[in-house]
Amino acid sequence: xxxxxxxxxxxxxxxxxxxxxxxxxxxxxxxxxxxxxxxxxxxxxxxxxxxxxxxxxxxxxxxxxxxxxxxxxxxxxxxxxxxxxxxxxxxxxxxxxxxxxxxxxxxxxxxxxxxxxxxxxxxxxxxxxxxxxxxxxxxxxxxxxxxxxxxxxxxxxxxxxxxxxxxxxxxxxxxxxxxxxxxxxxxxxxxxxxxxxxxxxxxxxxxxxxxxxxxxxxxxxxxxxxxxxxxxxxxxxxxxxxxxxxxxxxxxxxxxxxxxxxxxxxxxxxxx
Length: 272
What we know:
Elements: E1 2-13, H1 19-24, E2 26-36, H2 39-44, H3 53-66, H4 72-86, E3 92-99, E4 111-118, E5 120-128, H5 133-146, E6 150-155, E7 159-161, E8 172-181, H6 185-198, E9 213-219, E10 224-225, E11 230-231, H7 240-249, H8 262-269
Antiparallel strand pairs: 1-2, 2-3, 3-4, 5-8, 5-9, 6-8, 7-8, 10-11
Helix pairs in contact: 7-8
């Protein structure tokens, strides 16, 4: 991916653990590497097709002077999030904030924090088999779109399916959506659980009836195995009620373990 680099931008701000730092202020030095596609700008010579680094410098300066944080980590995290949310063509950035006058009582050149943050693509499966199922699914899509660090990109149509696992219950309404997010997998899982709880979800019976079920199917090409979170979803390749709506919005997305596309996995269950 192409890069635009802003190096050693000096900003006078009031960040620090000690009260005097918040009052007197000090110099901070910011370097930002902006990852974007510069092809269109390179072909057209139009600033609107790229990222205006002058505007980014102004945003960095205004943000760091308008806010006060105790930790450099917090300043860097908040600044990165603001830039990613407010800069349309910015896909990822590497941010370094230096504090040359850090009050440690010993001679040093500088203290710095460097982070890399960017947009991720997640695919979420939605399901409901209690009450007004369509309303629950639509509310979930709307709720995810309102999470500050998430953008809903695509939503499949909803389909009625037979229950999986525990079959003595009402039919499900299922769907999938594509989400762009700044959240980590764990943060995204927490957000999904909050949305489920708001819909009255109760985790009493495994595979039992539920007002709303939200599962992370893919997160980029990440392979993650934890006690309560497995990505890709461990059973997704066996579930037509996941693969059918997922195929509608991402037929050529590949499983990072098997390298099969969604279409190939679906054809393995039920020929198209």
